[in-house]
Amino acid sequence: MSYPDIALGLILLGLSAYLLFGGADFGAGLWHLLARHRRDREVIEHAMGPVWEANHVWLIFVMVMTWTAFPPVFADVMSAHWVPLSLAALGIVARGSAFVFAKAAPSRAYAWVFGISSVLTPYCMGAVAAVIATGGSSWLSPAGAYGGALTTGLCAYLAAVYLTWDGRRLDRADSAERFRACALVSGTVVGLIALPGALTLGVGSPLITASALAGVVSLALLLLRRFLAVRVTAALAVATVLWGAAGLADLDLHAVAAHDAVLQIVLAALGVGTLILVPSMIWLFVLFQRAPERPAA
Amino acid sequence: METFAILADAATLADFAAARQQMAFTLGFHIILASIGIGLPAITLLAEWRALRTGDEVYAELARRWMKAAGVLFAVGAVSGTVLSFEMGTLWPGFMDTYGQVFGAAFAMEGIAFFIEAIFMGIYLYGWDRLPPRTHFLTGIPVVIAGLMSASFVVTVNAWMNNPRGFTLVDGEVTEVDPIAAMLNPNTPVQAAHLILASLMVCGFTVASVYAVALLRDHRRGRPLDPYHRRGFAIPFTLGAICAPLQVLVGDWAVRHVHEHQPIKFAAMEGIEHTGGGQPFKFAIFEIPGALSLMTTFDVNGVLRGLDSFPVGERPPAEVVRIGFELMIAIGVALLALAAWWALAWWRHRKGRRDLPYRPWFLRIAAPAGVAAMVAMEAGWTTTEVGRQPWIVYGVMRTEEAVNPSPGLRFGLYAVLAVYAVLTVATISVLRRMRRRPERAQERPRPREVEVVG
Fold it and tell me: According to the model, what pLDDT value does residue A291 have?
């Protein structure tokens, strides 16, 4: 396996992580906007707490890896799609700051900004991804609209699935039930959008089968209220959509890859970084799942 | 991809100007937040350390406040930083296309450092009630170190743009790359030191400003000075005051460095029109004959190159560069004087003769120091960035070769200006609201999850 292959693998891994973790944050923003019950919103806010900043760096990782390993691809994609990507960037600004502001000093306006930008951002990114995958031209084309809607739906579905477990973990059975209903509905809808599209565009059949199977199993697990297990199958169902799109794009990256000297150093840095990052990240997650042990006075 | 070079001619001048303004604006915005992101965890830890040592509740309260503010500002800094990585591609694809791989490794390392910073920021913020006090204090240290490293890695890229090396160019294609040589270019140490000190000064003086205003209010209302306000002023102001003289030394190093490596930028900064010996030192309306030559070459008659020794097409907008430079120097000197005042007061205080200068006339001068430090930082940034023009990579690639050829970039600028204006107002209003809410530890409500889980 050559260095460009490894770099591409890492980019895909980063994209998957961004979709599975960051995407769920976007989806949570949508449910936050739609939630009728205060208790549900509290579960969402609690679940997103410290994680969003960490999730966010997946995107930066993907961008940095792309411009380092495949500079012309980054330059082409970013310049050709600067409008939706700039909108996505501004959406990230609006969302990230509205979330943290709402926490520090609550206000209705922040909740609205947070919800709307949580939909805008994945829509724009999904539209760009679909245009790249299908070799289209504009994010406003039908392919772009399809990709945008699908990505937003995937994010919403993932978030609803994750939140069922968060609701149960926080002893809010009623919230968990409502998120379960959201997950069932959004899962079915997204499945019905994804499958015909994948078949029309000619996505590799093993991935379609895997995605469809994982999706059906997820719905069954939701019906059975297996809220922890469904996290895994739902993530698989969603990630396979991304991989299918990546396979569809079929970019010839070797011709535009950076020199090996560059990739060697980047990979070495990532290796060292991982040794520090993984344990600290686990610590953060463990810490957050734990209630305060040192109550204030 | 040479298509960029051809298409770049098609982009209108208005769009090109808009791209530059957008980059300057978003970077100028981010640089303030990044400074506070570096400095605020540091002063938070200083306060927490004092709290651990003395058991004084005032220090603990300050640390808790600053930590919360750091959390909010870190989040805004993280998103404004993300915008910059988008803009690298949406505004400057020609630059990324050719040179992305040369400095990419630095950004990869920056990303890792930032990730570590974010994770430990999370641990520090959420560990306040979940970790033993000493452990909690220790988890703050990686935040500071990773912040410094992340800033240094980013600076290597700007240093490289000013002093490019570590690659071979054949027909506009990068054929050989040595990323380490690119990172360790001669500009890196001086630029990193200059920026880190500037960050600590901006943060120190800005936080101190808030408490200077609070102390002035105490004075006006005729109440005794709140110990919370006194310490809230003393810790960050001392940090800024320690950095101020160091910054003057590093600044001198930086100017000599520019003289050696970018003589045209030096000529613009110092306003040297014509090459010649015995150059006077000019500042605003003052002029000392021969002084600039003496300071730079250690010889009153030393020859310095003027703008006229460079082709017209390679000269930066000299007025902007010179004004930026003079503004930075003027503010730097004023802050140095303020730092000396504080140091003298501190020394006399230690000898038991006088109290620290929490008098209104000192506080009135100290209160604008935060804004002044920010202005100085932006002015210095303008000096180095505008002084590099018309090059995006000094001597190698012109800025207009790098710009996105798509039409309509100026509308992007308008959108960014609108969003950032709202963001600025919201950030300040949130910080003000956080300040108003009393959060003494003993008054804090029990965290919600206790009700939920237990």
Answer: 59
pLDDT of residue B199: 94
The position carrying tokens 């997204």 is A190
Which chain B residues are Cβ-neighbours of A85 within 8 angstroms? 86, 89-90
Per the prediction, chain B carries an average pLDDT of 85
Higher pLDDT, B7 or B148: B148
Length of chain B: 454
Decide the pairing of beta strands B286-288 and B281-283.
Answer: antiparallel
Whether the predicted pLDDT of A190 surpasses 60: yes
Q: Which amino acid is at A168?
A: R
Output the DSSP codes for B39-87.
HHHHHHHHHHHHHHHH--HHHHHHHHHHHHHHHHHHHHHHHHHHHHHHH
Mean pLDDT of B156-183: 87
Give the global pTM: 0.85
Cα B223 from Cα A59, distance rounded (Å): 51
> Under an 8 A CB cutoff, do B450 and A295 touch?
yes
Mean pLDDT of chain A, nearest integer: 83
Residue to mutate among B67, B114, B123, with most A CBs inside 10 A, is B123
Do B282 and B271 meet the contact criterion of CB atoms below 8 Å apart?
Answer: yes
- Is residue B176 classed as helix, strand or coil in its secondary structure? strand
pLDDT value at B441 more than 60: no
Q: What does the alpha-carbon distance between residue B159 and residue B189 come to, in Å, rounded to a whole number? A: 9
- CB nearest to A79's CB, from B107, B108, B404: B404
Phi, psi angle pair for A82, to nearest 5°: -65, -25
Per-residue pLDDT, A97:
82
Let me know if B312 is exposed, middle or buried by CB neighbors in 10 A (0-12, 13-18, 19+). Answer: exposed
User: Pick the residue with more confidence: A159 or B435?
Assistant: A159
- Buried (b) or exposed (e) across A104-122, using 16+ Cβ within 10 A? bbeeeebbebbbbbbbbbb
Q: Where are the domains of chain A?
A: 3-288
For β-strands B303-304 and B391-393, DSSP reports them as unpaired
Third-level CATH fold of A3-288: Formate dehydrogenase/DMSO reductase fold (1.20.1630)
Q: Are the beta carbons of A97 and B75 separated by less than 8 Å?
A: yes
Query: Would you state the pLDDT for residue B436?
Result: 62
Mean pLDDT lowest among B254-258, B433-437, B441-445: B441-445
Q: How many CB atoms lie within 10 A of CB B300?
A: 14
A177/A168 Cα distance (integer angstroms): 9
From residue A15, alpha-carbon distances to A147, B329, B422 in Å are: 15, 46, 30
Question: Which residue in A64, A114, A116 has the most chain B C-beta atoms within 10 A of its own C-beta, making it the best mutation to test that interface?
Answer: A64
Distance from C-alpha of B308 to C-alpha of B318, rounded to nearest angstrom: 12
Q: What is the average per-residue pLDDT within A266-290?
A: 85
Q: Of the candidates A265, A294, A296, A295, which has an alpha carbon nearest to the alpha carbon of residue A65?
A: A265
Confidence band of B169 (pLDDT split at 50, 70, 90): confident
What are B197's two structure tokens? 């000190």
Tally C-beta pairs within 8 A across A and B.
Answer: 269
Chain B residue with Cα closest to A82: B90
Q: Which chain B residues contact residue A95 at CB under 8 A?
A: 79
Chain A neighbors of B415, CB-CB under 8 A = 86, 90
Q: B453 versus B317: which is more confidently predicted?
A: B317
Which of A75, A105, A291 comes nearest B97 by C-beta?
A: A75
Residue B268 to residue B307: CA distance in whole angstroms:
7
CB-closest option in B89, B132, B441 to A74:
B89
